[in-house]
Amino acid sequence: MPTSRWLRAAAKVSFSIAVFVLVCFRAEAQAPASFPWRIEILAVHSKTFSGEEYLRGDAAGKDVSLGGELRLPFAVLQGKVPAVVLVHGSGGIASNADSWARLLNESGIAVFILDSFSGRGIKSTVEDQSQLDSVAMMYDAYRALDVLASHPSIRPDRIAVMGFSKGAVAAVFSASDRFVAKYGGANHFAAHVGMYTPCNTRFDGDTKVSRAPIRLFHGVSDDYVSVAACRDFVAQLKAAGADVSLTEYPDTWHAFDVPTYPPLFELKKAQSTRNCQLREGPGGVILNAATSAPYSLKSDPCVAIGAHIGYSPTSAAAARESVTAFFKQTLLN
After folding, report:
1. CB 301 within 8 A of CB 273
2. Residue 164: which of 212, 98, 106 has the closest Cα?
3. Which range (1-15, 112-126, 128-142, 240-254) has the least confidence?
4. Pick from 169, 177, 218: which is nearest to 195 by CA?
5. What's the pTM value of the predicted model, to 2 decimals?
6. What domains appear along the chain, each with residue ranges and CATH number?
7. DSSP β-bridge partners for residue 92
């Protein structure tokens, strides 16, 4: 009878679903929790701006197609999960992106590793930072936020951003009310983390930030990006009422959380603004704060050539513990 055939078909479907669910949970039990349950490659439609264009806010920008890797944790089997957007530094995506993704996946948090370089034909800006302005990478982060907010497995109200060096400019200053209003859209980051952040360029209104917490982590020995400017910036943010903190690690160099780096390595041709104090002037022009003259990456005497990087197991472990606890508190509660 038709009813019997329908019941048999329904029974087969139910059995198949049960087997699939059983396989899923067995995989979850057997695989290390740091492994992703699923990996997706997502497109991010962004725009490219010069620094001045971005700060003026009057340019359309050039369309560019970027991409990123979304790693979903096993927790997604129980429902929607929070996420963290990782914004890489001048060297592109490094091995620390993988280590952070594994750590956060283990905590039940999805990770989106954003690639701001490949779609623009850039391999590295270490020796030529003019290829892409750090502040313009903020637009990429906002668009990645939009992509994740519309994803069926992600909680749109629990998306954070974490950046490294050049990418930390996007991660930290994306909290600015000014940039959120101009470029952010309907979605907002729930938290901001900057690893060895260049804080030495100050923008108009940059102490007026969202209520989302901001956390900075920096090595005291860093001669690529000086921690001194971050001390001043954080003090001013606190005075303005922001939820912000700076954690410093002694005897620790730039990129201290990249496990494939040696303890100390010299980048002989790296451009560094560690000696520069910069501020935004009229028309989005960046000025040397000491001279009030327009700043030039190629000719300003404050720009140094050569800097060091180095992995610190002790500092990296401490940062991983602090950042993980911070994200658990802000994204999982």
Report:
1. no
2. 98
3. 1-15
4. 218
5. 0.91
6. 37-332 (3.40.50.1820)
7. 89
